[in-house]
Every structure is written in C-alpha cells, then in structure tokens.
Amino acid sequence: MSIEAQNPSQTDLERLPLDIARIHELAESLLPVYEQIEANRPLEEHKLNTCLVELIGLLRELHPADVATVLESLPQKERMLVWHLAAPEEDGEVLLEVSDAVRETLIETMDKEELLAAVEDLDADELAELADDLPNQVVYEALKTRDEEERAQVQAAMSYEDDQVGALMDFELVSIRADVSCEVVLRYLRRFEQLPDHTDKIFVVDDHEVLQGVLPIRKLLVADPEERVENVMATEVVRFRPEDDAEEAAQAFERYDLVTAPVVDENKKLIGRVTIDEMVDVIREESEADMLNMAGLQEEEDLFAPVLDSVKNRWMWLAINLCTAFIASRVIGAFEGSIAKIVALAALMPIVAGIGGNSGNQTITMIVRAMATGQLSGNQARRLLKKEVAVALVNGVIWGSVMGLVSWLLYDSPGIGLVMVAAMTLNLLLAATVGVLIPVAMEKAGRDPALGSSVLITAVTDSGGFLIFLGLATIFLL
Amino acid sequence: MSIEAQNPSQTDLERLPLDIARIHELAESLLPVYEQIEANRPLEEHKLNTCLVELIGLLRELHPADVATVLESLPQKERMLVWHLAAPEEDGEVLLEVSDAVRETLIETMDKEELLAAVEDLDADELAELADDLPNQVVYEALKTRDEEERAQVQAAMSYEDDQVGALMDFELVSIRADVSCEVVLRYLRRFEQLPDHTDKIFVVDDHEVLQGVLPIRKLLVADPEERVENVMATEVVRFRPEDDAEEAAQAFERYDLVTAPVVDENKKLIGRVTIDEMVDVIREESEADMLNMAGLQEEEDLFAPVLDSVKNRWMWLAINLCTAFIASRVIGAFEGSIAKIVALAALMPIVAGIGGNSGNQTITMIVRAMATGQLSGNQARRLLKKEVAVALVNGVIWGSVMGLVSWLLYDSPGIGLVMVAAMTLNLLLAATVGVLIPVAMEKAGRDPALGSSVLITAVTDSGGFLIFLGLATIFLL
C-alpha cells in the first residue's frame, strides 16, 4: 500500500515500519535533552537540533492512527517526548485511536487547557468515548461550549455500556423525505460542505423522524432524476437499537456486508448510525479479548506499563492457577505411599495430565469459537459431546498405546504400560467431556465462555489425570 | 438489528437464532424421510409435509450468509437435507460464505450440472475463490462460458497466494479521466444499471489506465457540477500491490478507515480493487488463526466433521505435546533417587511447572498480540525483556513465598519451603525470558510467532521447572 509516497518505488506497507524505527532512534537520541524540549528551550547542540527537526517533520507527516501506533510502541519516557512533539491539532484524533491503557498515560501528562483544546473539534460521539478517561472538570467545560443538541447526544452516548450499540453510534445523519424526487435529493446534498464519513446511504424518514427506509447512494447515482425517493429506496433495512449488543451488531455488519446502518429508538425514530470502522474495532477487540482471557490476562496491557500495573493485570489468573495447582498437588500427596513404592509413577504422571490439558484446550477453543460466531446453540451439545468423546477415544487408544509401549520398555514392566494406556484414554475422555460441558454451562449461565476456560479445563485434567493414573496404579500395581 | 421483520416488535438480532433453532427442529423431524425428499417424491404424511413447506419457506427468507451459518451449525445428515432444500439460485453465494471445511462437504454432494449452475452468476474473483475446491472439469467448463477478459481475471486472481491482496481483489472497477467535469461523471454513472457493491470512490486514470487519484463519492456529490475531476479528486491515495500481504492490507483498512482501495501493478496501472468486507474476513480469520494455533489446532474445523477428520486436524500438536511431555518425564526420571528419599517432591513439582507455564503464556500472548498489531519491533526486545523479568521477579517473590510457607507448614520442613521459593522464582524468570525470546526469534526467522508458541513455552517451563526444583532439592535437602 502507499499514500503516494515521496519515493514512488517504495510502497507504504514498507514505509510505515521504517518510519517507526526511525522515530524510535530519534526519540532515544533526544532523551538526554528531554527537559529542554519540554520547556521549549532551544537546543545548543546542532546535531540534536537536526534530530529534533527531523522527528517533528516525521510526526507531522503521519496519519493520527499511525501516531497512535508509534506511541503504543514506545517506552514511557520516549512516549512522552513524542507526544509533546506531535501536532497538537491532532491530539484528539490520536487519543481516540490509542488503546485504553496508553490513553491514560497520555492524558495524565496534559493540563486542562491542552485537554480542552484536544477535544474541541471532536464530534459528540467521540467526546463521549473519551469522557470516561477525562477529568470531570474538563468534560464539564467541554460540554459548556457545545449547543443543547450536542450535549444531549454526548449524554445519550455516555448512558450506554461500552458493549452496546448506543456507545458506538454517531449522530452525523443525512436524512430526507420519501416524497421528493432524486433530483431534489442531489440538490439538497450539494448544499452540504461535506458529507459524513462512510456515507453509503441516506436515511429516509417521515415527519416524525420515523425511519421509512434507506436510499443507497449507489442507487441514487443511477436513478432517473425524476423518480421519487420512495420508489428507489430500500425498505428492507438492517437497523439496530441502541441497547443491542455491539458484538452481535458487528457480526451483522460482517454477514450482510454493511458500511453504515441506522440506529432507531423503541418508536422506530432515527437517532443515530453505526459505521463499519467502529464495527471492525469491535471484531478485533472481541477476538483479542478471547485470546487474552484464555491466556489469563485480564485486559489489554500497555506493552511498557510500569511493572506493578502489569503485576496487577496478571495476578488474578496466577492466583487461580496456583490454587488449582495446589489441589492437583494434594491429589498427588494422597498417593505418596504408592509413589514411594514405585518412583516411576512420579515421572510418568505429568504425561497423563499434559495430554489431557492439551486435548481439552483443543476442544474448548473450537467450541468457544463456534459459540462466538453463532454456529453453536445449546441443544447440539449432546451431539457434539458424542463426537468429541469419539475423537478422544481414538486419540487415547493411539497415543495411549504409544506411551504405554514406551513406558513398558523404559521401566520393563507391562503393568505400568497397561496403566498408562488406560489412564491416558480415560483422561482424554474426561478432557473431551469437560471441554464440551464447561463452555456450554458458561453460556447457559449467561457468562462469557472464553473467560478462564483454559485455566478451568487444565485444572480438571491435571487433578483428574493424577487421580486416574495414580489411582489405577495403586489398584493394579501394588 | 432487524430487516424489517414481520413482527415489528421483535428485532432481527433476536430473530436469527430463533429461526436457526426452528430450522434445526424441522430438519431433525424430516430426517426419517430424507431419501424421499432427495428424490423429490411427495411426502404422504400431512404433518411432515407441513414441516417441509415451513422449512423451505424459512430458508428462502434467509440471507445467503445466514444460510451459511445454518449449514455450519448442522450435523452432516441434516446439513445435506437443508442444502438440498435451499434456493439453488443462491448456491454460489452460500458456497462463498461457508467455512472451507464445510464448503468441501457441500461440494461433494453436488453433481457437475448443479455446480455449474451455482457458479454461473458469480463474478470472476468469486469464481477464482471457489476454484480450488471445485473439480477441475467444472472450473474448465465454467471458464468456457466467460469472455476473454473474465478468464484472464480468474487466472490472475488464482495466481496469488491466499494471504496476498491479489487473491482478494475484485475487478468491478468504475474509472474516469481527470479532465472531465463532475457533471459528466454523474451522467456517466447514470448509464450504469447499478454500481458495484461498496462503491465509495471512483478511480481516476489516464489514457494508459495508470492511476492518477480517486474521486470519493462524498466529494462528487457536494462538488460544483462544472468543476473538473482533477480539482476535486484526492491524489494521496492508499493503494495496494497484488503481492502485498493481506493482513497488512487489512490493518491499513482498519487504520485509515477505508471502504475500498485500488490495486495497481508495478507500472501503477489500475488492475483491481479491494473492499472492506473482504478485509473484515481477513481480520476475523487472522485473530482466529492465532487463537486456534495457540491451542494446538491446525486449522478451522467443521464442528461436525467426521471423527477421523478431527483426529487428523489435532494429531500433530498432540504428538508434539507428547514429545515435550516425555522430555519432562525424563527430567523427573533423572531425579528418581531424590524423589524416593523425599516423596513430597513429587507432589510439589507440578506447582512449580504450572505457575511457570501460566506466567509464560501471559507474556507470550501479550507479545504475539503486540507483534500482530505492529506495536513491537525487534530492537525493543531488550527493554521488554527487562520489564518482563522484573514482573516475574515480583510475582516469584510474592507467590513463591506464599507457596513456600504453605509447603513448610504442610511438610513441616523449612528447607522444602525455601527450595519452593527459589524454584518458583527461578522458573518464573525462565518463563519471562523464554516468553520474550521465542516470539522475537520466530519473527526474526520470518515465521508466524503465534504458531505453537504456547506449546513451546509450556515445554520449556515444564522441563525447566522440574529440573530447577528437583535440582535445588537434591543439592540442598539431601
């Protein structure tokens, strides 16, 4: 990709990483004179001055979204330096683009005037998005400069949860009546300074702002100018309510290839619209949240967060993991007598637990994914369980036999080999069963099936694996 | 969301799952007469006939993307029944929407005539997308019905890898010259039957089809009709090359909020365009692939795949896991003498290994994610390593002390407690180091850092944890 780069033979997909790397270098070399730069005092050394000019030039050329990426990729100190040098008129846009964790660190460094200047040019929905992270005084003063309608919009947007359509909608509506001709619409549009981003359709409403349909620009452009809007507009409209779940709305955008969609209230009155760029963010964040949660991170983390912030973000899952590991340890403790007699058991038991955990994670990941994309409803659980159990049985017999044979040869004991086959098969069956039941139960209970599923399944297959293996060994080998 | 549902009080976000559930019920009840339905023989039983009529009606109402979701959510037998009953004129669209695994099962049931009918109305890029899964004879005959230009487009699209922009571009280009007036453009557009999906900009080219700029529809609509295109068009254009990486292109779409973008060849000649709907699929698949790979699944799996297909999809990671578990087992085996003397070691060692694995997975997931979004470049690895080591040290001292105390009390041995503190801290430090180094090394080697990272880190922290704990115990406690 390229944004018509200066060097036309180099595409921009290649240029951005190079720019970022160069900014890193420059920021690092300017770090020693950070305080002078912050105080806007001139730099004496010529070489540093050249660096400073180059850095400012690079930053001014970057799109706000790219500045956001640069800030996210920098350690705290360099980040502050670059933030200080970035174009202040883009501050608001950049704040909207950075991750929540980094946004906090940036806002902390700004005083009230800077913040007010940054949010001055933002739309109502954008101001609402930042409002939670801004000091109350700033929000209050920023609202004072807006008119009544915009204040109401900010408040409306702020009244919805982050995962609701209402928090993501904007208010840049272009709407027309159904009884005018396409020619009139075209003339009406020409009176705008510019049309809102992503405008791919115009909303058709009646006298009470009730949504009647939409007029896709694609149709407007090819329609006979004399034709009335009501004969050209689409009445089968995908529309949302502000209370709708943002993830489900994003899936609808994906499924029906939407670019924008109207948001209506309970009386079908048009109140806002959602655009694909917000939905893409939802899709990205949703998949990432699942991945982070499965790995035991509470939320997205600033790569260069202070150590204690990182510790806090991770301590909960570590603590839970420690508890489950302790339970597994007590299961082993109960069989210390057996281990004392056959020490080989201690060496073999992690294999049984490990394969159960791995296989259970495969099952649970597949099911969590199927649930996220709406492929799986509760009443298929029984059928899926049957299939997963069959897969586990095949894997158990194959891999159990392999490891059974290896154990037999290693410890010269057919008994240990047979216990190994049986324990591995049983633990795989346990993993398959629990791997289906945990996410199904979580979803029935109205909870996110991804949350902690990996830790839970590993807990079961660890303790279960030790119990099965040591139990069988105690019964048959002692 | 709703597509103006029959029952206007019910929104469609709620309706689709209900429809799907009802289709499941109907398909199940019709299963006994599957053969009669397939042979298009009339059903004798009145009740079944009513079911059949309702099922066909429901399917005809659904969007092809929703039919795809229904098919993905059905077990094989019911899936075939529903596929047989779905509107044949939508077959091509549905095949494009379903996952690769399910697509194969559907194509298997269709004969040559059905397949040719299904792909008849598809665009060149869509035919190219399906071509890999279609029998050669079908592709050959489908191409015969196309004109020279379309055949060239299909072949061009098929010549790129799945993860390149070229495989995702389409050829529905609307292009104009720079020296005409906006009025002329509007008149030119009116001659189209309809404009391509997602048209948000018109491409401006010279006499040799070289891209000069783009004319956003938003600007065209508000421009003075007398104004020439060259004065209205944007020349800073985000454009791609067909060889560009699809993931990076998708990130550019996300960053710059694009709806469509031109694709040009090495001479800057316009050859195609990419649209946001394809990019959304890339974003979704990319995050999912990371998640599946980390859990040890090779690829997206049909939920109701035959047991042996599922076994095949999972066996590789299970085998790798088994190998690493075996190595860990041999590490323990080397300390059998120590365990025989202090059996408590066997019970405590999984705790040390477990916390290392959990913590290492947190680190590696965070880094893999940062790499996927371009936040992390190689030269920050050292700094990140320092931070992660510091986090590990804090966690090690806190949780190590907790478990050290518990072990001391449990086994009434301060020595075991101290070994526990030291081993946990050291294994956490190992996990942090390897958790940073594995993805950085993978990326330097040009490989996907997500692939197998979880299995690798667990292998290191398991074997490493056992070695550290049993080693320290052997030195200090025996």
TrEMBL record, chains A, B:
Protein localization: Cell membrane; Membrane
Domain CBS, residue spans: 233-291
Database matches in Pfam families: CBS (PF00571), MgtE (PF01769), MgtE_N (PF03448)
TM region positions: 315-333, 339-357, 389-410, 416-442, 454-477
Keywords attached to this entry: CBS domain, Cell membrane, Magnesium, Membrane, Metal-binding, Transmembrane, Transmembrane helix, Transport
Gene3D superfamilies: CBS-domain, MgtE N-terminal domain-like, SLC41 divalent cation transporters, integral membrane domain
Highest rank taxon of the organism: Bacteria
Membrane-topology descriptor: Multi-pass membrane protein
Keyword Ion transport belongs to the record: no
Family: Belongs to the SLC41A transporter family.
Subunit (UniProt): Homodimer.
Biological role: Acts as a magnesium transporter.
Entry-linked NCBIfam families: mgtE
UniProt protein name: Magnesium transporter MgtE
Organism of derivation: Uruburuella testudinis
Annotated gene: mgtE
